[in-house]
Design a protein that fits this description.
- The protein is of the alpha+beta class.
- The protein has one domain.
- Helix content is 37%, strand content 10%.
- The protein has 18 helices and ten strands.
- β5 and β6 form a beta hairpin.
- α1 runs antiparallel to α6.
- About 11% of the residues have low confidence.
Length: 388
Protein backbone atom coordinates (compact mmCIF):
# COMPACT_ATOMS: atom_id res chain seq x y z
CA UNK A 1 0.00 0.00 0.00
CA UNK A 2 2.79 2.44 0.90
CA UNK A 3 4.43 2.06 -2.52
CA UNK A 4 1.06 2.52 -4.21
CA UNK A 5 0.48 5.75 -2.27
CA UNK A 6 3.88 7.12 -3.25
CA UNK A 7 3.39 6.21 -6.89
CA UNK A 8 0.03 7.97 -6.88
CA UNK A 9 1.55 11.02 -5.18
CA UNK A 10 4.17 11.40 -7.89
CA UNK A 11 1.55 10.80 -10.57
CA UNK A 12 -0.52 13.66 -9.13
CA UNK A 13 2.56 15.87 -9.36
CA UNK A 14 4.03 16.04 -5.86
CA UNK A 15 7.80 16.51 -5.62
CA UNK A 16 8.27 14.66 -2.32
CA UNK A 17 6.18 12.17 -0.38
CA UNK A 18 6.63 10.53 3.04
CA UNK A 19 4.57 8.79 5.71
CA UNK A 20 4.80 9.21 9.47
CA UNK A 21 2.92 8.57 12.70
CA UNK A 22 1.16 11.03 15.02
CA UNK A 23 3.75 11.26 17.82
CA UNK A 24 4.99 14.86 18.05
CA UNK A 25 6.15 14.76 21.67
CA UNK A 26 9.79 15.31 20.65
CA UNK A 27 8.88 18.75 19.27
CA UNK A 28 6.74 20.01 22.16
CA UNK A 29 9.51 21.57 24.25
CA UNK A 30 10.94 23.62 21.43
CA UNK A 31 7.57 24.90 20.26
CA UNK A 32 6.55 25.85 23.78
CA UNK A 33 9.82 27.71 24.32
CA UNK A 34 9.26 29.68 21.13
CA UNK A 35 5.79 30.74 22.27
CA UNK A 36 6.98 31.59 25.77
CA UNK A 37 9.59 33.95 24.31
CA UNK A 38 6.82 35.77 22.42
CA UNK A 39 8.66 35.49 19.13
CA UNK A 40 5.38 34.72 17.36
CA UNK A 41 4.44 38.41 17.75
CA UNK A 42 0.71 39.04 17.12
CA UNK A 43 0.06 35.55 15.70
CA UNK A 44 -2.02 34.55 18.72
CA UNK A 45 -3.54 31.61 16.88
CA UNK A 46 -0.23 29.76 17.26
CA UNK A 47 -0.62 29.79 21.03
CA UNK A 48 -4.39 29.33 21.08
CA UNK A 49 -4.35 26.09 19.10
CA UNK A 50 -1.05 24.74 20.38
CA UNK A 51 -2.53 21.58 22.00
CA UNK A 52 -4.17 20.55 18.72
CA UNK A 53 -0.98 21.25 16.82
CA UNK A 54 0.96 18.86 19.04
CA UNK A 55 -1.74 16.17 19.11
CA UNK A 56 -3.13 15.28 15.66
CA UNK A 57 -5.80 13.12 17.28
CA UNK A 58 -7.53 16.29 18.46
CA UNK A 59 -8.10 17.18 14.81
CA UNK A 60 -8.98 13.65 13.71
CA UNK A 61 -9.60 11.20 16.59
CA UNK A 62 -9.13 8.09 14.45
CA UNK A 63 -5.95 9.23 12.69
CA UNK A 64 -3.22 6.58 12.55
CA UNK A 65 -0.89 7.70 9.80
CA UNK A 66 -0.08 11.04 8.18
CA UNK A 67 0.92 11.36 4.54
CA UNK A 68 3.21 14.36 4.01
CA UNK A 69 3.55 15.87 0.54
CA UNK A 70 5.73 18.61 -0.90
CA UNK A 71 5.31 20.55 -4.14
CA UNK A 72 8.09 22.59 -5.74
CA UNK A 73 7.07 26.16 -6.60
CA UNK A 74 10.23 27.85 -7.97
CA UNK A 75 8.92 29.79 -10.99
CA UNK A 76 10.50 30.31 -14.35
CA UNK A 77 10.83 34.07 -14.31
CA UNK A 78 13.09 37.05 -13.76
CA UNK A 79 16.22 36.56 -11.68
CA UNK A 80 15.24 37.75 -8.18
CA UNK A 81 18.63 39.39 -7.66
CA UNK A 82 17.92 41.74 -10.56
CA UNK A 83 14.70 42.86 -8.89
CA UNK A 84 16.18 43.26 -5.41
CA UNK A 85 18.95 45.50 -6.72
CA UNK A 86 16.61 47.67 -8.80
CA UNK A 87 14.81 49.81 -6.22
CA UNK A 88 12.23 50.99 -8.77
CA UNK A 89 10.95 47.40 -8.99
CA UNK A 90 8.66 45.56 -6.57
CA UNK A 91 9.94 42.38 -5.01
CA UNK A 92 7.29 39.75 -4.29
CA UNK A 93 8.20 36.47 -2.67
CA UNK A 94 8.55 33.82 -5.36
CA UNK A 95 5.87 31.61 -3.80
CA UNK A 96 3.16 34.22 -4.37
CA UNK A 97 3.73 35.10 -8.02
CA UNK A 98 1.19 32.63 -9.37
CA UNK A 99 -1.99 30.93 -8.22
CA UNK A 100 -2.69 30.64 -4.49
CA UNK A 101 -0.83 27.53 -3.32
CA UNK A 102 -3.64 26.67 -0.89
CA UNK A 103 -5.91 26.00 -3.86
CA UNK A 104 -3.31 24.10 -5.88
CA UNK A 105 -2.10 21.94 -3.00
CA UNK A 106 -5.57 21.11 -1.70
CA UNK A 107 -6.72 19.99 -5.15
CA UNK A 108 -3.73 17.68 -5.47
CA UNK A 109 -4.15 16.30 -1.94
CA UNK A 110 -7.79 15.52 -2.67
CA UNK A 111 -6.79 13.82 -5.91
CA UNK A 112 -4.27 11.70 -4.04
CA UNK A 113 -6.78 10.84 -1.30
CA UNK A 114 -9.31 9.69 -3.88
CA UNK A 115 -6.71 7.50 -5.58
CA UNK A 116 -5.95 5.90 -2.22
CA UNK A 117 -9.65 5.45 -1.56
CA UNK A 118 -10.06 3.50 -4.77
CA UNK A 119 -8.12 0.69 -3.10
CA UNK A 120 -9.45 1.47 0.39
CA UNK A 121 -13.18 2.32 0.05
CA UNK A 122 -13.58 2.68 3.81
CA UNK A 123 -10.83 5.26 4.05
CA UNK A 124 -11.41 8.26 6.32
CA UNK A 125 -9.13 11.24 5.85
CA UNK A 126 -8.63 14.99 6.25
CA UNK A 127 -6.47 17.21 4.06
CA UNK A 128 -4.57 20.21 5.41
CA UNK A 129 -2.79 23.08 3.65
CA UNK A 130 -2.33 25.78 6.29
CA UNK A 131 -6.01 25.14 7.00
CA UNK A 132 -5.70 23.88 10.55
CA UNK A 133 -3.34 23.76 13.53
CA UNK A 134 -0.90 21.28 12.00
CA UNK A 135 2.77 21.10 12.94
CA UNK A 136 3.57 20.47 9.32
CA UNK A 137 7.32 21.05 9.36
CA UNK A 138 7.85 18.56 12.20
CA UNK A 139 5.64 16.00 10.48
CA UNK A 140 7.53 16.47 7.22
CA UNK A 141 10.84 15.98 9.00
CA UNK A 142 9.56 12.81 10.66
CA UNK A 143 8.43 11.56 7.26
CA UNK A 144 11.92 12.05 5.84
CA UNK A 145 11.19 15.01 3.58
CA UNK A 146 14.08 17.06 4.91
CA UNK A 147 15.68 18.77 7.88
CA UNK A 148 15.21 22.16 9.51
CA UNK A 149 17.66 24.74 8.24
CA UNK A 150 19.05 27.51 10.40
CA UNK A 151 16.53 29.86 8.79
CA UNK A 152 13.83 27.56 10.34
CA UNK A 153 12.65 26.40 6.90
CA UNK A 154 12.63 22.80 5.73
CA UNK A 155 15.54 21.85 3.48
CA UNK A 156 15.86 18.83 1.24
CA UNK A 157 19.21 17.71 -0.15
CA UNK A 158 17.74 17.09 -3.61
CA UNK A 159 15.55 20.14 -4.26
CA UNK A 160 16.46 22.80 -1.68
CA UNK A 161 13.68 24.67 0.14
CA UNK A 162 11.35 26.13 -2.49
CA UNK A 163 8.39 23.86 -1.86
CA UNK A 164 4.99 23.87 -0.19
CA UNK A 165 3.85 21.31 2.36
CA UNK A 166 0.50 19.58 2.71
CA UNK A 167 -0.79 16.67 4.78
CA UNK A 168 -3.40 13.94 4.60
CA UNK A 169 -4.49 12.60 7.99
CA UNK A 170 -5.72 9.02 7.49
CA UNK A 171 -7.09 6.14 9.54
CA UNK A 172 -4.85 3.72 7.62
CA UNK A 173 -2.24 1.85 9.64
CA UNK A 174 0.72 2.45 7.34
CA UNK A 175 4.41 1.66 7.65
CA UNK A 176 6.23 4.87 8.50
CA UNK A 177 9.27 6.12 6.65
CA UNK A 178 12.47 5.84 8.67
CA UNK A 179 16.18 6.19 8.09
CA UNK A 180 16.31 3.35 5.54
CA UNK A 181 14.20 5.49 3.20
CA UNK A 182 16.59 8.46 3.29
CA UNK A 183 18.40 9.61 0.21
CA UNK A 184 21.78 7.91 0.34
CA UNK A 185 23.31 10.39 -2.10
CA UNK A 186 24.24 13.67 -0.47
CA UNK A 187 25.38 16.03 -3.23
CA UNK A 188 27.63 18.93 -2.38
CA UNK A 189 25.84 22.27 -2.71
CA UNK A 190 26.90 24.80 -5.30
CA UNK A 191 29.33 27.08 -3.48
CA UNK A 192 29.01 29.75 -6.11
CA UNK A 193 25.25 30.05 -6.10
CA UNK A 194 24.59 33.06 -8.34
CA UNK A 195 21.93 34.68 -6.17
CA UNK A 196 23.01 36.74 -3.16
CA UNK A 197 26.27 34.81 -2.81
CA UNK A 198 28.36 35.99 0.16
CA UNK A 199 31.55 34.93 1.88
CA UNK A 200 35.10 34.40 0.69
CA UNK A 201 36.18 31.51 -1.50
CA UNK A 202 38.29 30.05 1.32
CA UNK A 203 35.40 30.28 3.79
CA UNK A 204 33.06 28.53 1.39
CA UNK A 205 35.48 25.69 0.75
CA UNK A 206 35.76 25.04 4.49
CA UNK A 207 32.10 25.39 5.38
CA UNK A 208 30.80 23.13 2.68
CA UNK A 209 33.23 20.26 2.66
CA UNK A 210 31.16 17.11 2.35
CA UNK A 211 32.56 15.69 5.58
CA UNK A 212 31.38 18.65 7.64
CA UNK A 213 27.92 18.57 6.06
CA UNK A 214 27.39 14.84 6.47
CA UNK A 215 28.52 14.75 10.10
CA UNK A 216 26.71 17.86 11.30
CA UNK A 217 23.84 16.45 13.37
CA UNK A 218 22.52 12.96 13.93
CA UNK A 219 18.90 12.15 12.96
CA UNK A 220 16.64 13.47 15.69
CA UNK A 221 13.76 11.01 15.41
CA UNK A 222 11.83 8.76 13.07
CA UNK A 223 12.63 9.34 9.40
CA UNK A 224 14.14 12.79 9.83
CA UNK A 225 17.05 13.47 7.50
CA UNK A 226 20.49 14.31 8.78
CA UNK A 227 21.07 18.02 9.20
CA UNK A 228 23.37 19.10 6.37
CA UNK A 229 23.83 22.79 7.25
CA UNK A 230 27.16 22.22 8.94
CA UNK A 231 28.77 25.48 10.09
CA UNK A 232 27.10 27.53 7.37
CA UNK A 233 25.35 30.69 8.58
CA UNK A 234 24.67 32.38 5.26
CA UNK A 235 20.97 32.72 6.03
CA UNK A 236 21.68 34.50 9.32
CA UNK A 237 24.01 36.94 7.60
CA UNK A 238 21.70 37.53 4.64
CA UNK A 239 18.57 38.41 6.64
CA UNK A 240 18.00 42.15 6.02
CA UNK A 241 16.48 42.75 9.47
CA UNK A 242 18.49 40.18 11.46
CA UNK A 243 15.25 38.39 12.27
CA UNK A 244 17.15 35.10 12.50
CA UNK A 245 18.48 35.85 15.96
CA UNK A 246 20.34 32.54 16.26
CA UNK A 247 20.41 29.28 14.31
CA UNK A 248 16.86 27.89 14.09
CA UNK A 249 15.38 30.94 15.86
CA UNK A 250 13.32 33.54 14.01
CA UNK A 251 11.87 36.59 15.74
CA UNK A 252 8.66 37.26 13.82
CA UNK A 253 8.59 40.88 15.00
CA UNK A 254 11.65 41.54 12.86
CA UNK A 255 10.79 39.27 9.93
CA UNK A 256 9.87 41.05 6.67
CA UNK A 257 7.49 38.24 5.76
CA UNK A 258 5.61 38.80 9.01
CA UNK A 259 5.67 42.61 8.74
CA UNK A 260 4.37 42.68 5.17
CA UNK A 261 1.93 39.74 5.31
CA UNK A 262 0.70 39.09 8.84
CA UNK A 263 1.07 42.41 10.60
CA UNK A 264 -1.77 44.85 10.02
CA UNK A 265 -0.53 47.89 11.90
CA UNK A 266 2.05 50.63 11.52
CA UNK A 267 5.42 49.17 10.56
CA UNK A 268 8.06 50.34 13.07
CA UNK A 269 10.13 53.15 11.60
CA UNK A 270 13.45 51.47 12.32
CA UNK A 271 12.36 48.48 10.22
CA UNK A 272 11.20 50.43 7.16
CA UNK A 273 14.60 51.18 5.57
CA UNK A 274 15.57 47.53 6.01
CA UNK A 275 12.55 46.31 4.06
CA UNK A 276 13.92 47.80 0.85
CA UNK A 277 11.64 47.05 -2.10
CA UNK A 278 10.18 43.85 -0.62
CA UNK A 279 6.45 44.52 -0.71
CA UNK A 280 5.19 40.97 -0.11
CA UNK A 281 7.34 38.57 1.84
CA UNK A 282 11.07 38.00 1.68
CA UNK A 283 13.22 35.23 0.19
CA UNK A 284 16.72 36.36 1.17
CA UNK A 285 17.41 33.50 3.59
CA UNK A 286 16.52 31.05 0.81
CA UNK A 287 18.18 32.87 -2.06
CA UNK A 288 21.55 32.66 -0.33
CA UNK A 289 21.22 29.01 0.73
CA UNK A 290 23.72 26.76 -1.10
CA UNK A 291 21.24 23.87 -1.05
CA UNK A 292 18.98 25.89 -3.33
CA UNK A 293 21.53 25.46 -6.08
CA UNK A 294 19.57 22.21 -6.51
CA UNK A 295 16.25 24.01 -6.86
CA UNK A 296 14.37 22.97 -9.97
CA UNK A 297 11.91 25.03 -11.95
CA UNK A 298 8.37 24.00 -11.07
CA UNK A 299 6.41 21.85 -13.48
CA UNK A 300 3.16 23.29 -12.13
CA UNK A 301 1.83 25.93 -14.60
CA UNK A 302 -0.32 27.51 -11.87
CA UNK A 303 2.84 28.76 -10.16
CA UNK A 304 4.05 30.75 -13.17
CA UNK A 305 4.04 34.53 -12.57
CA UNK A 306 0.81 36.39 -13.27
CA UNK A 307 0.40 40.00 -14.38
CA UNK A 308 4.18 40.32 -14.77
CA UNK A 309 4.50 40.40 -10.98
CA UNK A 310 8.04 39.05 -11.14
CA UNK A 311 9.20 42.15 -12.98
CA UNK A 312 7.06 45.22 -12.44
CA UNK A 313 7.54 48.68 -10.97
CA UNK A 314 6.50 50.02 -7.61
CA UNK A 315 4.85 52.98 -9.33
CA UNK A 316 2.61 50.73 -11.41
CA UNK A 317 1.46 48.68 -8.42
CA UNK A 318 0.94 51.71 -6.18
CA UNK A 319 -1.28 53.19 -8.90
CA UNK A 320 -3.71 50.27 -8.72
CA UNK A 321 -7.14 51.17 -7.42
CA UNK A 322 -8.72 48.80 -4.93
CA UNK A 323 -10.85 47.38 -7.74
CA UNK A 324 -7.72 46.73 -9.83
CA UNK A 325 -6.02 45.14 -6.84
CA UNK A 326 -8.91 42.74 -6.28
CA UNK A 327 -9.12 41.91 -9.97
CA UNK A 328 -5.40 41.38 -10.48
CA UNK A 329 -4.98 39.28 -7.32
CA UNK A 330 -7.97 37.05 -7.92
CA UNK A 331 -6.95 33.48 -7.14
CA UNK A 332 -3.67 34.72 -5.66
CA UNK A 333 -2.29 34.43 -2.12
CA UNK A 334 -1.54 38.16 -2.27
CA UNK A 335 -5.20 39.10 -1.94
CA UNK A 336 -5.32 37.88 1.66
CA UNK A 337 -3.37 40.89 2.97
CA UNK A 338 -5.95 43.32 1.59
CA UNK A 339 -5.58 46.55 -0.33
CA UNK A 340 -4.66 48.70 2.66
CA UNK A 341 -1.62 46.64 3.66
CA UNK A 342 -0.67 46.31 0.00
CA UNK A 343 -0.54 50.10 -0.32
CA UNK A 344 1.21 50.44 3.04
CA UNK A 345 3.97 48.08 1.95
CA UNK A 346 4.49 49.79 -1.40
CA UNK A 347 4.56 53.21 0.25
CA UNK A 348 7.47 52.01 2.39
CA UNK A 349 9.27 50.59 -0.65
CA UNK A 350 8.82 53.88 -2.52
CA UNK A 351 10.45 55.64 0.43
CA UNK A 352 13.46 53.39 -0.04
CA UNK A 353 13.74 54.11 -3.76
CA UNK A 354 15.94 56.82 -5.19
CA UNK A 355 14.02 60.12 -4.99
CA UNK A 356 12.47 61.38 -8.20
CA UNK A 357 9.69 63.76 -9.13
CA UNK A 358 7.40 61.06 -10.51
CA UNK A 359 7.43 59.09 -7.27
CA UNK A 360 6.96 62.22 -5.16
CA UNK A 361 3.99 63.31 -7.27
CA UNK A 362 2.40 59.87 -6.97
CA UNK A 363 2.83 59.78 -3.20
CA UNK A 364 1.36 63.26 -2.82
CA UNK A 365 -1.59 62.38 -5.06
CA UNK A 366 -2.42 59.38 -2.83
CA UNK A 367 -1.85 61.16 0.48
CA UNK A 368 -5.24 62.76 1.06
CA UNK A 369 -7.34 59.95 -0.37
CA UNK A 370 -5.72 57.16 1.63
CA UNK A 371 -6.53 55.65 5.03
CA UNK A 372 -4.66 56.87 8.13
CA UNK A 373 -2.50 53.73 8.04
CA UNK A 374 -1.37 54.34 4.47
CA UNK A 375 -0.94 58.09 5.06
CA UNK A 376 1.47 57.37 7.92
CA UNK A 377 3.79 55.48 5.59
CA UNK A 378 3.37 57.89 2.66
CA UNK A 379 4.32 60.77 4.95
CA UNK A 380 7.40 58.87 6.10
CA UNK A 381 8.46 58.31 2.51
CA UNK A 382 7.96 61.93 1.54
CA UNK A 383 10.00 63.02 4.56
CA UNK A 384 12.77 60.67 3.46
CA UNK A 385 12.84 62.44 0.10
CA UNK A 386 12.96 65.87 1.70
CA UNK A 387 15.89 64.87 3.89
CA UNK A 388 17.86 63.27 1.06
Amino acid sequence: MENHIKQCAHAVGFSLIGITNTDLSAYATRLNEYLEKGQHATMAYLEKHNPMRLDPKQLMPNVKSIICCALNYWPDGTNPENILTDKTKAYISRYALGRDYHKVMRKKLEQLAQKIKEKNPQLNYRCFVDSGPVLEKALAMKAGLGWQGKNSLLLNNQIGSYFFLGEIYTDLDLINDDTIHHNTHHPTPNLRHPVLDTGSRSTRSVLYSKNIIDSAVKPRNDGEQNNHCGNCEKCLNACPTKAITAPYQVDAKRCIAYLTLEYKGIIPEEMRPLIGNRIYGCDDCQLCCPWNSFAKTTQEPDFNPRHNLDNTTLIKLFSWSEEEFLKNTEGSAIRRIGYECWQRNIAVALGNAAPNKKISALLISQLNQSSPLIREHITWSLNRYENT
